């Protein structure tokens, strides 16, 4: 007679089940943290750097006036970083943006200062020149097939030379006061405030509310498609922390000179390009090209067209940065924009963009640019020599890229 083995005993509901749930929850949390290590790390690094320089400068770096100066002084680098991160995601690079900034500012100055045309004509001409430069680069990269590194390296030399010719090797200044308001103007006093600008605080509150709503909708969508998400208390804590930082920033601006016009321009660009990169077909195609070019071509992505428009967009944003920089300096100079391309590229890599393409975000590039800005500003306040500042920036960039390589090797080893 055959004996049947008794079924295995089921674990007690009050003992084994919680242990399994605890193990699963811990595993999921570990995977979530590992998956978002690079993204989370950049925010932690930003907070740590801000706190470090606040201590080293005895709070001067967080004063209302200095925070305003950081926004004004580094806004054009952040604008360039928005376009550069899309270029890098697609697997390219643009070494010419500094020269294009100089050229667009020079064209604007010649029209407005030398020929006496209205200030808005100079701005429109600068943007048009930037777009034409983007068309030039896009044609050689997308349709001729020359690597972007070579095309933009040639463009760096070409457009720097054109800048010298346009300006006749001399600086032009000053611009009309209306032109200068783009980078140095403020919106304040619109809804009052006793010793502070209430309008700035209102804009900050709206930004926090928008961030919370957007984050909640993203979370709901991830849950719907059974994707891993952070626990709800952690989500609430993240929104509270970000909201507190934004409102502190707005409070400091409100007690200085109000809301800088250039910050509004930058915020609009970040929102628009953030949506384009994440919510549109064109944005997904950029990631597809940088992630796997062959797969993108087999999937029907019009690679040439996408690459062309990526560089047209970079030229447009270079024109915007050229207007902001010439407005900020109230002049057009032959040496304007020197090394801007390296600052923009560094901002993207520090902000999480991958060297091989396919990875990166607009927000990450902004955080990377702010890290560079806070470091530069803090070291200037401390009176550190310019040569030492360059060494520090170089080391930070090297470590950021090394961290990216380390993460990829670890991910490959775990498969």
Automatic annotation (TrEMBL):
Cellular localization per UniProt: Cell membrane
CDD domains associated with the record: TM_PBP1_transp_AraH_like
Principal location listed in the UniProt entry: membrane
PANTHER family: ABC TRANSPORTER PERMEASE PROTEIN YPHD-RELATED-RELATED, XYLOSE TRANSPORT SYSTEM PERMEASE PROTEIN XYLH
TM regions (residue ranges): 40-61, 67-88, 95-113, 119-139, 146-167, 198-220, 232-251, 257-276, 306-325, 346-375
Key words of the record: Cell inner membrane, Cell membrane, Membrane, Sugar transport, Transmembrane, Transmembrane helix, Transport
Membrane topology (UniProt): Multi-pass membrane protein
Primary role: Part of the binding-protein-dependent transport system for D-xylose. Probably responsible for the translocation of the substrate across the membrane.
Cited InterPro entries: ABC_transp_permease
The protein's name in its UniProt record: Xylose transport system permease protein XylH
């Amino acid at each position: 007679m055959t004996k049947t083995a008794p079924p295995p005993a089921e674990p007690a509901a009050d003992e084994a089940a919680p242990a399994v749930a605890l193990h699963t929850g811990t595993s999921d949390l570990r995977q979530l943290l590992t998956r978002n290590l690079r993204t989370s790390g950049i925010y932690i690094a930003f907070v740590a750097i801000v706190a470090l320089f606040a201590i080293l400068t005895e709070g001067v770096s967080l004063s209302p006036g200095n925070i305003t100066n950081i926004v004004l002084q580094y806004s054009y680098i952040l604008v360039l970083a928005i376009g550069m991160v899309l270029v890098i995601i697609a697997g390219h690079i643009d070494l010419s943006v500094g020269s294009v900034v100089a050229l667009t500012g020079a064209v604007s100055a010649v029209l407005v200062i030398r020929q006496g045309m209205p200030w808005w004509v100079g701005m429109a001409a600068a943007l048009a020149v930037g777009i034409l430069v983007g068309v030039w680069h896009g044609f050689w990269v997308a349709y001729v097939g020359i690597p972007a590194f070579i095309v933009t390296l040639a463009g760096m030399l070409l457009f720097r030379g054109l800048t010298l010719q346009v300006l006749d090797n001399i600086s032009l200044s000053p611009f009309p006061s209306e032109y200068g308001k783009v980078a140095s103007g403020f919106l304040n006093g619109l809804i009052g405030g006793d010793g502070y600008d209430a309008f700035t605080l209102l804009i900050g509150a709206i930004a926090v509310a928008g961030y919370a709503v957007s984050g909640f909708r993203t979370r709901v969508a991830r849950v719907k498609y059974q994707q891993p998400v952070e626990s709800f208390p952690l989500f609430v804590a993240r929104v509270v922390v970000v909201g507190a930082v934004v409102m502190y920033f707005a409070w400091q601006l409100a007690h200085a000179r109000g809301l800088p016009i250039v910050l509004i321009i930058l915020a609009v660009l970040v929102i628009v390009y953030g949506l384009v990169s994440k919510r549109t077909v064109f944005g997904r195609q950029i990631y597809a090209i940088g992630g796997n070019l062959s797969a993108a071509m087999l999937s029907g992505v019009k690679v040439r067209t996408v690459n062309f428009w990526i560089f047209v967009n970079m030229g447009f944003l270079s024109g915007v940065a050229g207007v902001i920089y010439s407005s900020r300096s109230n002049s057009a100079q032959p040496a304007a924009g020197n090394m801007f391309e390296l600052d923009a590229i560094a901002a993207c890599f520090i902000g999480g963009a991958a060297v091989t393409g396919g990875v990166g975000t607009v927000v990450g590039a902004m955080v990377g640019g702010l890290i560079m800005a806070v470091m530069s500003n803090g070291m200037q306040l401390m009176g550190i020599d310019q040569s030492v500042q360059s060494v520090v920036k170089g080391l930070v960039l090297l470590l950021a890229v090394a961290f990216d390589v380390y993460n990829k090797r670890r991910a490959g080893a775990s498969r």
